[in-house]
Design a protein that fits this description.
The chain is an all-beta fold. 0% of the residues lie in helices and 50% in strands. Strands 5, 6, 7, 8, 9, 10 and 11 form a 7-stranded antiparallel beta sheet that branches. It starts with 33 loop residues before the first strand and ends in a 10-residue tail after the last strand.
Length: 219
């Protein structure tokens, strides 16, 4: 009453080498699945031997590395940037970065496991494009790495605007962090005049110039 099972082919050619120790690797199997098999061997006289049917069960597939998503850089200043991302499982945080996609710099490994990640990059150069990618390892040591991406740092001073009247002008600008305020000005790019230094630290700056000559170009 024996009913033979339907067997999968090994995918390899028949080995004609006559040996006493045999090994065949079967590929393309499904994880956590029971398989039936038997082995067949023939000698030089073509006497064929069949081993009894047996079974094996493949192992459970290992979990994939952490899946990284929602990578963004915010805020960005002239000398720093904060890289944020999420993972689908609890994992560590680390960022590789540099002026090329070879990187060259790496933040210290934050071994705190979580799904929301935030890493500060400091000591950057103003108005510079940086390449980066992020790394996250789960509790088993499997690591996910994001694709290469870029961001550009701010200038230290930006958004400069001059609003003149007949004999005065208001100069406004923004800085990447809280700084003092002063304006140098004159009839050429040698300037020659400067306002009193305002030592109040702020990101938004406003300085008034007075005593100017009407219908005159100032640097």
């Amino acid at each position: 009453g024996y009913q033979p099972k339907q067997y999968f082919a090994t995918g390899g050619a028949l080995s004609l080498a006559l040996v006493t120790n045999h090994s065949v690797t079967i590929t393309g199997l499904q994880p956590q699945t029971r398989y039936y098999y038997h082995v067949v061997s023939a000698d030089a006289a073509n006497n064929v031997g069949y081993a009894p049917e047996s079974t094996f069960t493949t192992l459970q597939a290992p979990p994939p590395p952490p899946q990284i998503s929602a990578v963004k850089v915010s805020p960005i200043t002239s000398q720093s940037a904060t890289v944020k991302w999420t993972t689908d499982v609890d994992a560590t945080s680390q960022v590789d970065y540099g002026k090329t996609n070879v990187y060259g710099s790496q933040t210290p490994l934050d071994q705190t496991l979580g799904v929301a990640h935030s890493v500060l990059l400091s000591g950057l150069s103003p108005l510079t494009t940086y390449h980066y990618h992020v790394r996250s390892k789960d509790a088993t040591g499997k690591e996910g790495v994001s694709p290469d991406a870029t961001f550009k740092t701010q200038d230290i001073i930006y958004g400069i605007k001059a609003t003149p009247s007949t004999t005065s002008a208001t100069i406004k600008w923004t800085t990447d962090d809280a700084r003092d305020s002063q304006v140098e000005y004159g009839l050429s790019n040698m300037y020659g005049n400067s306002t009193t230094l305002d030592t109040n630290l702020a990101k938004a700056h406003t300085v008034s110039l007075s005593g100017l000559t009407s219908a005159t170009t100032y640097h």
